[in-house]
Each structure stands twice: as C-alpha cells, then as structure tokens.
Amino acid sequence: MRTLMAFAVALLWPLSAFASCGSASCPLDLHSLNQPAPGGFTLDLSFEYIDQNHLRGQAAFEPDHAERRTINRTATLSLRYAPNDSLQLSIAAPYIARSHQHVHGSELESWNIHGAGDLMLQARTRATKHVWLLGGVELPAGTTNVRDVEGERAEIPIQPGSGSTDWVAGIAFERNIRRASHIEGSMGNVALIPMFSSLTYRRNGTGALHHRAGDEWQWNGGTSYPLSGNLELLGQMNVRHRERDTSPDDPQDAFFTGGTYAFASPGVRMTRGSGAAYMLLQLPLFQRVNGIQLTAKRNWLGGVQWRF
Asked: Which domains does the chain possess?
C-alpha cells in the first residue's frame, strides 16, 4: 500500500517536491568510548562528515531530479560527569556547517549554512549491574532563520536547529568479557573486551514553521579489541528507523523523508595517558527510504577525548 501511495505521489507531484534534502547524522553510540570514572569528567570533541550525493528510491535515476547534493559537517563538544558509579550526566553542543544544492524550476540554487545546533541534555542511571536506563531532552537552542543573500529562508530540515523540544528514552546493556589477547597486560595475555547494546526512542516535537521531524528508533551494538598497548580496533552495528516528517506549510517535501537504515561502523582508537583520538567509517548495509532521498555512500566520524 505504501509503495502504491509513493508511486502515485511521484507521478502527480512536480519535480520540485522530489527528494528529501534533510539533515543527516551518524547513528553511533559514543557513550561506550569515553565513560567517566566515578567523580570524574570526560570531554569529547567529535567531527562528522556526510556527503549526500546519491539519489535513492523510486525514479532514483531521473536525470532532472530537483535535489543535487547536501554536504553535512558537524563539530560536537560533549561533556560528561559521573557523580557516582550509578549515574552519568552529559551535555552536547553541536556546530553545523552545511552546503546544499537543488534545482528550482530551471535554476540551480546553492546554500551555505552554518550555525549552532540544538542542545542535548542526557542522564544515564544504572538499573542493574549491566543495564542502564537513559533519558534526555534536546532543547531548541539552534539557529532556524538562516537566509541566503536574497533573503530567502532555508528549509527547516537543512537549518542548523529544528526549533522543537525533543525527548529521548532508552536502555543500554554493557558488559566486559575476558578473552585471550596477543598482547601482554596487567592480566597477562587476557584482556577485558567491552561489549554494549543500546536501544533508544526519540519523540520529536513541533518546531519552526510548524515542521515536525518524524519520531525515531535507533539500535546500536558494538565492541572493541586491543591491537597493542595503546591502539584498539572499534566495531559497531547501527540501525535507525525514522518516520516521515509532517509539515503543514510544505507537505510535499515532508512526504519524502524518513526510512530505515543499517550501517557497519569499523574504526580505531589510540590512547595516550588521559587522552585518546578515534576515527570511524560508517558503511551502509541497508537503506530503504520513503519516496526519493539523497543518501551518502559512506559517513566519517573522528574525534579526540580527555578524562579528568
């Protein structure tokens, strides 16, 4: 039924309505990489690069498609604090730089957008030895009124902020297992291998221009393995499902949003004293989009961390 609806809309709507040019982010769990010790802090500065230059979905090979390319660059500063071994508090502040191109009529329009994103506050509390419950709120602190040189306001999905208050709830399982290792450590040739799995639900509110992003489920699972005394191999699997957006002012574009995505995310991390640097490459395994959307062939995320 959904396929028939999408096909009918694709036939009846003009080309200017085709394809989501919405914002993108890597569905990764970075909490597992840099947890603070009880009474301590961790600071994480991450950099994300996503080049959405591939049309996916029905009529994805249409040469006159309206959407052309969206490049997302995001720097996020996160601070975490653990008052004790059963509670963790965090705040994350992103800065977003985004370039976007689409065709309107017969003209190619380009946008270069940058500004502060929305502020995320989150708490994690230990329910059992290995299970954590988490909750958070994203506050509408980001910019939602970026305009081009002619004074035209950019679409809400490509603005740095959403203008909405969004809520997040979830559960995480974390455990260390002992496995034989090829390197010598404090336990001889045995290493503690961390494993985690998390499931979160995000309920988005109505934001600027009455635009409401679709609600979202996200599952992450992963581990790390030591390659040497200060180098470890990272690996995650990530699944995201997002419902369609709703927008009374622009229902056509909102139809072409949301979908289901699965990624494999290998990476490495190098530690030195209380600091560390990491890099992950995210590769799509499955992408099912609503209608036609711009997607990326790969995502990049790297960062540096400190404990104090």
From this structure: 2-307 (2.40.160.40)
